Amino acid sequence: MHAIEKLLAEKAGKKFVSTGEIINCEVDLAGINDLYLQTVRSFFEIGGKRVYDPSKIIMFLDHYAPPSTIIQADNQKQFREFCWDQGIDLLMDINQGVCHQVLADKGLVHPGQIVVVTDSHTTTHGAFGAFGTGVGATDLATILLTGKLWFRVPEIIRIHLEGTIPHGVYAKDIILHVIGTLGADYGVYKAVEFTGTAVAQLNISERMALCNMSTELGAKTSYIQPDAITMDYLNQKVSRPYKIYHTDANYQYAAEHTFCVEKLQPQLAAPFSVDRVAAIEQFIGRKVDQAYLGSCTGGRVPDLAVAAKILAGKKIHSRTRFVIVPASQGVFLEAMKLGYVQTLVEAGATFVTPGCACCLGTHEGMIAEGETCISSTNRNFPGRMGHTKGEIFLGSPAAVAAAALEGKIVDPTQYID
């Protein structure tokens, strides 16, 4: 069996599972974000009185942080009251940040878990050797009531990333290249494992970006085998024994794809699809009205660090806005301590509350009709960050910062030491 299958089998109380099998698994951590008040409503509609285990439930007020409408404010009020009534201590209020980064910051996610959140980018937690997946309100309500959820054991695809990562190329460039090659619907309800020498060169932040964007392949979940980099990060958060599964040597993947990154250039996904990917050189000179750095894909400390290096002692272009959204309170605090925030503010950047912000197109950085935004986020569909006739390019944090500096799309390599 694959490590993912072994994990699922144990959570289902079985010795063996096979592709396509329907199983009921115990869920280690269930998260709800503030888009999904229907989860609470469904819990009561199906007869719920008390949640199965308050310690395994976490509430995130991250998508509307802080709320910008009365409806959003009222929804958050109901979430808070539900947590207080049910004894759920893990209430991450509007000051905490994006659910996926908060889980990592607080050491709540680790190898061997099943983590389910009402957010499609829960695939992020494959970076820690966990089975992370997103579900809708009714499924999450079922977990609140029973502590379990059904899964179909997914086909598992291996994406092998080989070679030394070139100067100026980041995980975002790599995964955009993969998505552009395979297509946005290639991995629907499949698990994607990332392996290879290039993966071994990535820190946890970059691995999280890689796994996060596997959702844009349609993946149900993602996986990176835990190694020394994983354990060093986890032990800084919470030092404890972890259950780590390993794939059998003779395991047969449903499909395998190898990508050599040696000659890869910085990439961009052009409007209006994540798989419309090409080397950044094809878009050089395209005017940019807004540069956006943030989200669960590109709002971590290393992302702010590269932006600060590019903009240190400089000013953003006079006709370009640079909006920065730290992924979490922890990221924001560390970036302040390291001086990145001051450097970026002095360069002309605008910081907003840690959270999802404009990544979901409701507040804090919306673009107007006819405007172009280059973003470190994960989606560029029409209307994703504002007007349906605004255009979004997806790129690495370096590409975003360099565009903020020049007011147009440029190759960021020249600005990186």
Note the main attributes of this structure:
5-stranded parallel β-sheet, Aconitase, domain 3, 417 residues, globular, 2 domains, alpha/beta
Average residue-wise pLDDT: 97
CATH architecture of the largest domain: 2-Layer Sandwich
- Domain module tally: 2
Oligomer: single chain
- Our Rg estimate from Cα atoms comes to 21 Å
Widest sheet: strand ordering: 4-3-2-5-6
Largest sheet, in brief, is: 5 strands, parallel
Residues in helix, %: 25-40%
Distance between the termini: 44 Å
How many strand units?
A: 18
Strand percentage lies at 15-25%
Helical stretch tally: 14
Name the CATH homologous superfamily of the largest domain.
Answer: Aconitase, domain 3
Instruction: Catalogue the unreliable spans.
Output: none
* CATH top level assignment of the largest domain: Alpha Beta
Summing up helix and strand content along with how strands pair, one would put the structural category as alpha/beta
CATH level-3 fold name of the largest domain: Aconitase, domain 3
Identify the overall geometry.
Answer: globular
What do you see in this structure?
The radius of gyration is 21 Å and the shape is globular. The model has no long low-confidence stretch (mean pLDDT 97). β8, α6 and β9 form a beta-alpha-beta unit. The chain folds into 2 domains: 3-259, Aconitase, domain 3; 268-415, Aconitase, domain 3 (2-Layer Sandwich). The chain contains 14 helices and 18 strands. The N and C termini lie far apart (44 Å). The strands form 5 sheets. The chain has a 5-stranded parallel beta sheet, covered by helices on one side. Strands 16-15-14-17-18 form a 5-stranded parallel beta sheet. By secondary structure, it is α/β, with parallel strands linked by helices. The chain has helices at 3-11, 38-45, 70-86, 99-105, 137-146, 171-182, 197-200, 204-212, 228-237, 295-298, 301-311, 329-337, 340-347, 397-406; strands at 22-26, 29-33, 57-60, 90-92, 114-117, 131-134, 148-152, 155-162, 190-195, 221-223, 255-260, 267-269, 277-279, 290-294, 321-325, 350-351, 372-375, 391-394.
